[in-house]
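To: structure subgroup
Subject: Chain for Friday's discussion

All,

I'm putting the inputs and outputs inline so they're searchable in the archive.
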Amino acid sequence: MAIGGSHGKTTTTAMIMHVLQQSDFDFDYLVGAKLEGFEQSVKVTGAPIIICEADEYPASTMERKPKFHFLFPHIAVITGIAWDHINIFPTFENYLEQFVIFINKIEENGTLIYNESDEVLVKLIRENQRPGIKYVPYQLPKYGISNGITSVEIGGNKTELTIFGDHNLLNLQAAYEVCKLLNVSDTDFTKAISGFKGASKRLELMISGNNVNVFRDFAHAPSKVKASIQAVKEQFPESKLVAILELHTFSSLNADFMNEYKGAMDPADEAIVFFSSHALELKRLQPLDPERVKSGFKKEGLKVITNRQELESQLQKLSSNGNFLFMSSGNYDGIDILQTLKL
C-alpha cells in the first residue's frame, strides 16, 4: 500500500497503521513521523503487507526522482493535489506529471483510492485512466461536532474522535477504504480509530485548559495552512483563533510563490506570518520583502515579523484566551512557545 498526495499522507498512513495494529495484523511500514505505539518510523521484516507513506519529494540529493516512483503498490491512495516544492517542480504541470507516473506504477489489477472532492485530482485521474485498475473514490463521512468534539459514522457505527477537521475526516475515510480491502470489519475499524490521537505535529494539542488551547501543526504549503485553520475554527466556532505561520521551506520563502497563499489565513481572527533572514541565508534565497508577503496573503490586519525578539514580544501581548495555532516545518528560531505565551 502506498499513500500519496500533497497533504494528509502521513496522517492517513498513521491511521491505517493504528487500525491494523489494534486489529492484530502482521505488517511492515514506512512513515515520515513519530507515532504513538510505534518505536520507529520504519519496519521491514517478512510481513505479508507493507504500508508506505508515498512522498513526491526527491529520494536523495543524488537521486532526483520522487520517492514514490520507487514504489509499485497493489493499493494506492492519493489524498489530493496542491502545488508544492517549487524548487524541485518549477511548474504545476511538472508537479502533476509526478502523480501521473505514480499512478502508472500501480501493479496490474491494483486499486487506486482517491479523494473525489479534489477537482484537480479527479481531472488528472479521468485523463490518465488505466485498464485493469479499480478506482475507488471517497469523500467526507457523516460527522457532527458538539462541545468541541467530533463524532463520525462509519458503516452504521458511530464513535467520538480525538482528531478533527475536514481534512482529517477525509484522511479517515481514505484509511477506511484501505482497511476495508484488507478485510478489517466496520466495527473493528470504528473501535480502533476512536483511539487514534494523530501523528506528531499534525494539529497536535500542546496544552489545554483555562479557556485556551495551543496546537502545533506541520502545515506550511497553502492548502495545508488553509485546512488547519479552517479545522480549528470549525471545531471551536465561538473561540478567538490566533494563527501563527512560519515560512520555512523553499517554496514558502519564494516571493514568486506568495500569491498561492491568497486567502489561506482568512478564517483566523488574528494572523501572524514569521520568517527569519537566517532561513533565507541557509537556503541561499533572495531577501523576502514583508510587503510582498502581505500582498500575497491578502489578509486584513496580517502582521509580518522577521526576527525572533519581535515575535516573542508580539506573542506576549496576546490574550491568553482562545485558540493558538502554530504552523511550521521549522521551530520559529528556537522559541519556546508555551514559555513565551506564559502557559
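Points worth raising on Friday:
The chain has a mean pLDDT of 93.
The longest helix spans residues 166-181.

D.
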